[in-house]
Design a protein that fits this description.
By secondary structure, the protein is an alpha/beta fold. It has two domains: 183 residues, D-Maltodextrin-Binding Protein, domain 2 (3-Layer(aba) Sandwich); 115 residues, Periplasmic binding protein-like II (D-Maltodextrin-Binding Protein, domain 2), CATH 3.40.190.10. The protein is built from twelve helices and ten strands.
Amino acid sequence: MDMKTTCKILGLFLALAVAFGESTAQSYPSKPIRFVTGNQTGGGTDLLARVIAQKLSEQLGQQVIVENKPGADGIIAAEYVAKSAADGYTLLVGTDGQMILNPGLYARIPYDPLKDFVPVIQLSSNPVVFAVHPKFPATSIMDLIAMAKARPGKLFYASGAASFRVTTELFKIQAGVNIVHVPYKGGAPSVAAAVNGEVPLVVTATSSVLAQLKSGQLRALAVTSLARTPLLPDVPTMDESGLAKFEAVTMQGLFAPARTPRAIIDKLYGELSLVLKLNDLKERFAVLGLDTGGLPSAEYAALLEANLGKWKQVLSDLNIRAE
């Protein structure tokens, strides 16, 4: 076979592949889509997934179902999606913990964040909050630090994801304290533990704890963004509280299995971009303590890759491993 014939055949295959992708995108979705989350029902990422699922369902005229697969810092959910068919019908509503921190926390995980997934779109971001039971005597971060220094290793905190544990480890280093982690399977159980008095402190996303803060079941000491969040305008930042330039903001996004046709990724991105611009969605995000995202696939992938390298080095330097 000469070079000219080979090029013609390759060109034909390429044209067929493009035509197949376009045809697939035109008929997509022809059945319900599943959003898989590593949170239990009621956790921050679960609530985000349900808001997005409802609006995307209305946009597409097709059912979008949220499926919860909690546990193991989101590894169970991520592995499940990574091994699913790359057809756009099983998608991960993923977090920084699953995509950036787990590779540094665990010696081995059953998925590669960069090779096994294609980012569709960054959905949201939100700060972390340090919140305590209302009967807990500390009324500020400096009070908490003083109590922890007076009783090293005797103060316990709950968290339901790797990102919140890492945030707290950085807090411990900067504050010079030793507080003990009590892990829970998701944001909702960790918040419930603080509300029920099982632990005095919970470190979690604002979206997971906003309702309890509004109702007085918990009290916020500080948020980890550099600027105050409009939803908790009276709650100071860590920086304001005396921990200079302390910042930790989490991101959430939608991910498809690798080899999902680009035409489907592009269609999902286009539809979700419209969803994220809806005023009623922005209002619901605000109630949940979320900032609207929107980074497209390529930009989001580049950001994830950069952060993955950065945080693997940080975790190694601090000798932080999964519990």
